[in-house]
Amino acid sequence: MQQHAGLLQEQDDALDTLEGGIKRIKALGKVMETELKEQAVILESLDEDIDKADSNMQSLQKKMGAMIEDAKSSDRALWGIIAFLTLLLGFLTMMVFS
Length: 98
Known about the structure:
Layout: H1 2-71, H2 75-97
């Protein structure tokens, strides 16, 4: 009978150890969940910024296409394109450094 009680005590100790490990894993899982939720918010914001930048870039490409067509026929348009490209370079440089 005492041998049986000792065996049960060993099993209880093993289960207590296992329970502690499971609790630590659960806590780690909650920390990971929180981190992933925060990163999801950051990625959504980044996605919105990329969409805006893409939209702006497409708009600029259309304007540049129109300016190039105009430049084929006039020097004034050519200087306008040079000024525009200089401004665009300044804007993009500013975005890179900010």
